[in-house]
């Protein structure tokens, strides 16, 4: 009885609320509309008349469909850069204005107020990209449209005490590309400051490929870039090589393929070779083989690997018998990384560039039993190598149950990893005839028990497998892929073959 009374009370309350809302809507429908006009948006002239102090509180923003802002408004926007480095809308407004904002931005380059860094609470969260001082933002805005008249004001900034200003000024001058930029750009290229020289060279390469560098500037920069290349680099990169090839392809090919450059033990050899490859230039085979000889075992390992990779990528693009023979000889190299690179280059010569993903995509599109035996072998061996790299045989047996897991011994035999195939068979025999019957928690508990044994079967298998490195396994797998290349080309390569 009590619940019935409460239910009726709630129902009555809901009905009263509904009636009140209905009456309110009827009253609003009969009320005459208000005739108070909306406030009109500020015009450009009224905005320009605002005092500078108020601009930091309400920075101007121009939408894409706004009319062009007058010069006074743009000058005020540039002044706003002094107040706050956290508001990207001001920078967007200046960039949308394009060359109309150039006079105010150029004046800012020589204004000492813009060189003062922002306070910590006035820097944008992406400060290292956006700018830590108003001068950084002014140079950034000018770089978007690179007006030629900015060259005279930007040239002295190459000698600024601020390294970020020096770098952005060099990039701006390289984007302008006029003859007036020659002297400061040459100073930047030949600078001992690696960040400044690299920034100038990379932007010169971009501008040259984009057709921005004027012929007079090209002629002035080529000797400076040549001197930079001959001087060598303390690092592993040489952006001057790419800039030289982009400015003067014939001179770049002559310099970069000369014995003085490629046969010298340089730390930046790989970058020189990548510059040639990036611009579609392949050195003569003899020169390339000499470069391979220059990659000595005394060099630090990462640099040697980079240089080997670059040489072998270029060798893979030379379609003649001597290049094939050279790669075959590299398979006998005492360096495992050289042998692996040669195996990959041989696969690339046959149109195989990403065999594992090609096989996985076909497995996903069909099913495990529908892909070719060669593709199943490669996927099984790749999974086996990946497990050994992660945590040895314990990882491999922890992954049991995936398609083709029990085919791993057969796949290892096909690739040539006979010792590994025997180890996997021993492991399967140790676990009993049907380890796949164990699922989930039961299998995890058995793995834990086996791990507690001294020595555990995983430790014994890992110790027996230690005689062969994973790089050696990858070499044999890559050679197997090369031998069956028709199964591992992507659709485009297969249609061309």
Question: Mind sketching the topology for me?
Answer:
Layout: H1 2-30, H2 44-48, H3 52-55, H4 71-83, H5 88-97, H6 102-109, H7 127-130, H8 134-145, H9 151-154, H10 163-176, H11 182-189, H12 194-209, H13 215-231, H14 239-247, H15 249-256, H16 259-262, H17 269-278, H18 285-294, H19 301-316, H20 321-330, H21 336-349, H22 355-365, H23 373-398, H24 408-415, H25 418-431, H26 440-452, H27 457-465, H28 470-483, H29 491-496
Attribute tags:
disordered C terminus, 497 residues, 29 helices, 66% helix, 0% strand, mainly alpha
Can you offer a commentary on this structure?
66% of the residues lie in helices and 0% in strands. It is built from 29 helices and no strands. The chain has helices spanning 2-30, 44-48, 52-55, 71-83, 88-97, 102-109, 127-130, 134-145, 151-154, 163-176, 182-189, 194-209, 215-231, 239-247, 249-256, 259-262, 269-278, 285-294, 301-316, 321-330, 336-349, 355-365, 373-398, 408-415, 418-431, 440-452, 457-465, 470-483, 491-496. It is flat.
């Amino acid at each position: 009885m009590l619940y019935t009374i409460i239910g009726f009370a709630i129902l009555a309350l809901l009905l009263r609320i509904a009636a009140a809302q209905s009456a309110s809507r009827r009253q609003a429908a009969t009320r005459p509309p208000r005739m108070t006009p909306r406030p009109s948006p500020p015009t450009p002239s009224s905005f320009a008349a605002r005092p500078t102090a108020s601009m930091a509180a309400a920075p101007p923003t121009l939408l894409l469909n706004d009319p062009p802002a007058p010069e006074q408004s743009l000058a005020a926007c540039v002044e706003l850069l002094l107040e706050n480095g956290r508001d990207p809308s001001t920078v967007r407004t200046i960039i949308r204005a394009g060359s109309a904002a150039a006079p105010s931005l150029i004046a800012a380059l020589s204004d000492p107020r813009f060189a003062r860094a922002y306070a910590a609470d006035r820097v944008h969260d992406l400060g290292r990209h956006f700018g830590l001082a108003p001068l950084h933002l002014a140079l950034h805005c000018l770089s978007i449209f690179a007006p030629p008249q900015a060259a005279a004001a930007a040239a002295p900034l190459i000698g600024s005490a601020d390294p970020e200003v020096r770098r952005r000024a060099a990039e701006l001058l390289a984007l302008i590309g006029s003859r007036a930029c020659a002297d400061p750009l040459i100073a930047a290229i030949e600078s001992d400051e690696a960040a400044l020289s690299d920034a100038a060279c990379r932007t010169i390469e971009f501008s040259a490929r984009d057709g921005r560098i004027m012929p007079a500037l090209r002629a002035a920069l080529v000797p400076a870039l040549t001197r930079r290349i001959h001087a060598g680099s303390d690092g592993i990169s040489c952006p001057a090589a790419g800039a030289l090839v982009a400015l003067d392809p014939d001179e770049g090919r002559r310099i970069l393929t000369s014995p003085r450059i490629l046969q010298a033990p340089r730390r930046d050899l790989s970058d020189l070779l990548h510059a040639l490859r990036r611009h579609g230039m392949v050195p003569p085979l003899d020169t390339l083989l000499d470069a391979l000889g220059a990659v000595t075992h005394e060099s630090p390992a990462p640099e040697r690997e980079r240089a080997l990779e670059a040489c072998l990528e270029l060798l893979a693009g030379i379609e003649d018998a001597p290049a094939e023979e050279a790669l075959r000889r590299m398979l006998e190299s005492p360096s495992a990384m050289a042998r692996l690179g040669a195996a990959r280059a041989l696969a690339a010569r046959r149109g195989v560039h990403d065999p594992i993903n090609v096989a996985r995509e076909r497995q996903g599109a069909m099913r495990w039993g529908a892909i070719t035996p060669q593709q199943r072998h490669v996927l099984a061996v790749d999974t086996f190598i990946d497990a050994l790299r992660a945590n040895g045989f314990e990882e491999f047996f922890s992954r049991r149950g995936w398609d083709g897991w029990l085919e791993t011994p057969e796949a290892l035999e096909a690739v040539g990893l006979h010792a590994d195939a025997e180890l996997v068979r021993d492991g399967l025999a140790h676990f009993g005839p049907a380890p796949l019957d164990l699922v989930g928690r039961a299998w995890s508990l058995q793995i834990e028990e086996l791990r507690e044994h001294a020595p555990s079967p995983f430790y014994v298998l890992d110790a027996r497998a230690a005689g062969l490195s994973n790089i050696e396994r990858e070499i044999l797998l890559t050679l197997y892929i090369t031998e069956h290349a028709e199964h591992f080309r992507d659709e485009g390569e297969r249609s061309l073959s």
